[in-house]
Amino acid sequence: MSDLIYVFCHILRQMRCTKQCRHTVSPFERKREQATRAGLRIIGVFAADAVMPAIHRLSDPLINQIAAGEVVERPASVLKEVLENAVDAGAQAIEVSLDGGGARRIRVSDDGCGIDKDDLALALERHATSKISSLDDLEGVATMGFRGEALAAIASVARTTLTSRAHGAGHAWRVDGPGKAPVPAALNHGTVVDVQELYYNTPVRRKFLKTEGTEFAHCDDAFRRVALARPDVAMQLSHNGRVSHRLPAGDMTRRVGQIMGDDFLAHARAVDADAGATRLTGFASLPAYSRASRDAQYFFVNGRFVRDKLVTHAIREAYRDILHGSRHPAYVLFLDIDPRTVDVNVHPAKIEVRFRESRAVHQFVYHALERTLGQAGTADSGAPVHTPSPPAGTPAAGFARPAQQSPLAMESAANTYYDFAATARPSVGTAASPPAAPVMPAQQAGEAPPLGFALAQLHGIFILAQNAHGLVLVDMHAAHERILYERLKTVLDGAPSLQRLLIPAVLQLSPREMATAETCTEVLAGMGFEVSAAGPQALSVRTVPALLAAANVSELVRAVLAELEDMPASQVVTARRNALLATMACHGAVRANRTLTVPEMNALLRQMEATERADQCNHGRPTWTQFSLAELDRFFLRGQ
Ligand SMILES: Nc1ncnc2c1ncn2[C@@H]1O[C@H](COP(=O)(O)OP(=O)(O)OP(=O)(O)O)[C@@H](O)[C@H]1O
Ligand SMILES: [Mg+2]
Asked: Is there a contact between 623 and 475 (Cβ–Cβ < 8 Å)?
């Protein structure tokens, strides 16, 4: 160690020497060789004699340019700030025209309150704002702007002209940049902000600009955010002379359709939940509309677009059971909350916020979405239809179990379905043993339950059913998986009912599986698996959860052990419990090529109607789809 310090001291002394004497062979190199020979490694050097110049005040333009680094990241940030100013000014119509992706020119005109002649020059100064004047104002700020920074920052890095005519003024006035005096100008009302040649005086930053297309895409997104937040304001966007959005003032649903597309609306649920003064409204996509990226996610807090980790987490959690991990939901959600409980002054671009009651907000957003998405029995395009579960009780007469003995695996699979059938509507079918023929006369279609009545099974994979709208196609494994999963969640909250195996199943396990089984015996018992060691690597399984009686015991138990591996027992009941149940449901669900009778199929349909989130399997795949008569007509060109 002392050697190392010695070498460092020498190096530093020699480096100073190098600087002053300009030796041709660097003493640093020589010392490094010496150090290496001595078996020492140089881990760093530091300049001990750097000279710190005297402190001085930065000039105002430089201060503004440094501040602009935070506010004006790219053309889209200019557009965002200028649009927000127009909104704050009470504009009812805003027109944006861009050139060269916004880098060449951003011109925004509004019909808001305008700026007085005397305030025009001030608007381009730093820390000049009309929006707050005290800390108290800041804490309850309701406008988009409050810092008095944006225009000054923009004007310090782009040629900026501000033209405005305040209400009641005889004519408009214009300032052509910071420090310039206002000159008379022509404008009917409102304000025009014209920002040209972004970064004309900071070439290094100009080099960081991406292609025109990319910069325009960012501007387009900034425009969309404001447009979504303010459907009551008419807005127009054009780029290089071509109009890309023309949005008349309207209501939120219409604006969401215009910005997100009608397809999104058709596959989204309307959200409307409140808790006291806090309210969540908007639309959240059903999983069938999920996306590979997060590009269609808009969350607003009191009209301000934000990206907030807490909120994103709450939304992700609400989708956890119905969306595959690699897919992303699309949503436009508006959280209205007392401004005094939100700190908006935590990020230079005001894109992050801090909630005073962060946990309560998380729970509120999570539950509001989870409830909305969990409503059962809905088609993507239809209005929510909820079919309450039929009252549990005596099995319907038509679904008595067949008298004859079936092979064990088949018998248990059938049992599961007769359990379904026992809770199905008595009016569905009347067979003592599985009837062979479809049972629904066409004229009954109008009275059919939401998912209709089964007609047939296709290739051992799909159920075909007829409902009031036309044809329903169900992926039977996916649907059954969701039903089992939801039922397991409920059943395992209490004491699970068990299916005792006639002959215990003995599984040959790996040492690792065996160790997991032994450490998790109690956890397994809580889920309905009674197990004990039957040898060093043999596990005897005496019971399985009654709901999973149809499953292949060996595969089911192995899958559960794989899930439990490395999972501390305390976590089973919390974080990863649902993943475990999903695995169990997948193994318990009816497999492809299993022939179902019509009553079994009908029972499955009725259970789907009564199950939360039955529209998607646990992996986010759709479980069923509807082909309306109109679609089928179109397909066959009928009536054309
Ligand atoms: N389009 C507009 N119509 C009317 N007044 C405007 C407009 N744009 C800017 N102003 C006035 O200029 C002031 C300065 O605007 P600027 O955007 O720099 O700051 P701010 O909006 O107050 O705060 P922030 O920096 O957070 O945006 C505003 O407070 C407002 O009084
Ligand atoms: Mg502003």
From this structure: yes
